[in-house]
Amino acid sequence: MIDLHCHILHALDDGAIDLEDSVAMARQAESDGIEVVCATPHIRPDHDVSISELEQRVSAINDELSRQGIGVRVVQGGELAEPIARTTSDENLREISLDRNGTWVLLEPSPGPLVQGTITAVEELAVRGFRAIVAHPERHAGAAFREQLEALVARGALIQVTAALIADGPAAPTMLDMAAAGLVHLLGSDAHSSHGGRPVRLSEGLARLGEVALVKPHLDWIASEGPAAILRGEDATPPFAAAASA
């Protein structure tokens, strides 16, 4: 499995505290069958993340994981805040694209319900040659939630749900309904630390998605095949179509 959304880089944003914490997160991933973790620190004004340092930081943690014999590889990425997507340079977008593939960018919606701004950000990224993966939509449900997700998908975005929150959380019923409509494409752990909060695990969320008839035959695509294509910078069209609104 591949986790495309994880704050595993230490002493950087609100993620891992230190290298020991990062290593413990990698051990969580390994125990869950996750082989690749995409490091996605927050790229937004309230976190002082230097994009130019990401390559070195990813290399350092991979060296430590190799030294300790942990079978997890960390790849470079970032979680781009919607309000600064327009002003982030193409060069920096390439650096924070997932595995630096130059195509797929993890986009964090602004706080509150999904609004036109997220759709506009996806459109503007597309004009510049980038495609968006919209992170944790379960936090952004509003009156026209399904319509907003449909609009994002129509513009080429993929929708990534937090594994722990679709497995067990107040938003799970809503997101399972969205999955039944073909509007959930990927899972991410969105883990921040081994000391508490969400673990680096996808399996429970994947099992919950297995309750949805539309996506049950495609769990391998959601957990592995689709993310692998994304990391290669390829098209990643889900093998299940979004249903039309009633």
Specify the structural class.
Answer: alpha/beta
Beta-strand content estimate: 5-15%
User: Helix count?
Assistant: 9
Helix content: 25-40%
Let me know the CATH homologous superfamily: Metal-dependent hydrolases
Give the CATH architecture.
Alpha-Beta Barrel
Tell me about the largest β-sheet. Answer: 6 strands, parallel
Cα-to-Cα separation, first versus last residue: 34 Å
CATH topology: TIM Barrel
Shape, principal axes of CA atoms: globular
Radius of gyration from the alpha-carbon trace, in angstroms? 17 Å
What's the average pLDDT?
Answer: 96
Number of strands: 9
Under the CATH scheme, which class? Answer: Alpha Beta
Brief digest:
By secondary structure, the chain is an alpha/beta fold.
Provide keyphrases for this structure:
246 residues, alpha/beta, TIM Barrel, six-stranded parallel β-sheet, three-stranded parallel β-sheet
Notes on the structure:
The strands form two sheets. A six-stranded parallel sheet has the order 3-5-6-7-8-9, sandwiched between helices. The termini are far apart. The protein is globular and about 50 Å long. It contains nine helices and nine strands. 37% of the residues lie in helices and 14% in strands. The chain has a single domain, classed as TIM Barrel, CATH 3.20.20.140. By secondary structure, it is α/β, with parallel strands linked by helices. The model has no long low-confidence stretch (mean pLDDT 96). The longest helix has 14 residues.
